[in-house]
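Our preliminary data section would be incomplete without showing what the modeling component actually yields. Below, a chain of 166 amino acids is followed by its predicted structure, encoded as tokens that our downstream tools consume directly.
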Amino acid sequence: MLTNILKFILGFTLAIAVLIGGGLTVALYFINRTGIAPAKPIFANDYPPEKTYKPKLVKAETSSIPKLKLVTQLTPTPTPTPSTTPTPSAEKLPAGAYRARVIWPEGLRLRAEPTEDAERVGGVSGNQKIIVLQETSDKAWQKIRVEGSNQEGWVKSANTEKLNDQ
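Predicted structure:
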């Protein structure tokens, strides 16, 4: 009779220990999973575009007769980088227009109309010089031209700063 009671107490104690150990294991698993910071999102302009490769003819090394053999050796072709050519300061500005620069570090999207829902027609990078052509009546939007190109569009006016070098 005494052995049966001891067996019951020992079995009960082991069952409680297994339940507590399992519960702690599951709790630690979920605590560790929620403690990991999520991966940083990657945007299209974070990395340069993939390099394109062209096959290149390479002379094959042979011991007796030199022959040309087509070997595709991948060599990166230089990707064209956009160059911003400064416009001469003597360029005639339209009436009411002035020079400014983009103060939003990530750059801005150019839109076809002065609304958030308008079609995107291009972009301008941060700290780039622009020409402000006109503003909406409420001064919330500005029609701009990227200096050195013919690209025009609308941007929010709080993201630009007038230049004093006129």
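The first strand starts at residue 53 and ends at 54. The helical segments are 2-35. Preliminary results of this kind motivate Aim 1 of the renewal.
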